[in-house]
Predict the 3D structure of the following.
Amino acid sequence: MKLIRFGAVGSEQPGVQLEDGTIIDVSAFGSDYNEEFFGNDGIGKLKTWLETNQASCPTVADDVRLGVPLTRPSKIVCVGLNYAQHAAEAGMDIPKEPVLFFKSTTALVGPNDDVIIPKNSEKSDWEVELAIVIGKKASYVEEADAIDHIAGYVLHNDVSERAFQIEKSGQWCKGKGCDTFAPVGPFIATTDEIEDPNNLNLWLKINGEMMQNSSTSDFIFNVQHVVSHISQFMTLLPGDIISTGTPFGVGLGLTPPTYLKPGDVMELGIEGLGVSKQLVKAYK
């Protein structure tokens, strides 16, 4: 299934995107896409419910806003430098184990919402990433069992302010958690929709120009390793997001470095996970 949420900010309703692209309203199912839904086999229950109720579900108009395709999770855990070429363009060593940092959940916005360059920013940058949505509580999970703890996958633009991230003292989170810096969606594809998350094309364009075009087959640490590794240090709850890192082609790595400016349009996609588009605006 493709899980989607639609409607005005703060009033989103759960939906499902059908194979033909039609979105149906499944709010009559009685549950939003939250921790309780993912942790109590909500995907299986919704699938069963749709067998007898799909025909009565209202169709959602094409022009309705898409929201983040799940409610606010307990955390967003990100993996840095998970593609060798990206580590090189950032001038950093290839890590011996996953580099972890947190992204604020207040950064979450819908897949086509505007991205706001934060106050005092001069180096806001783009990052297309495959994100994992946890489906079952995960603590000290073995790599062989990691997939059993995943609900699905989703497209994420890990927008980053490089001066805040790298040039200021402290942790990377300063440059990662700004408002609107986590466009997610359009939908969560459940695990049965994605045959191999470690072999997906992912790409990003700025104003129509291809900047990133790579594959998750270039991961340093694959999906199973990342889930297992993170679970050794913290409990992952249903609905938590893990963002698995970005390939080469970010603005920081260009010669000279190039950063987002008001009016820029970011368009990005991952094989099987749809496309999102964000207009960049200045902070007011």
Summary: Residues 42-53 form the longest helix (12 residues). The mean pLDDT is 97. The longest strand covers residues 150-157.
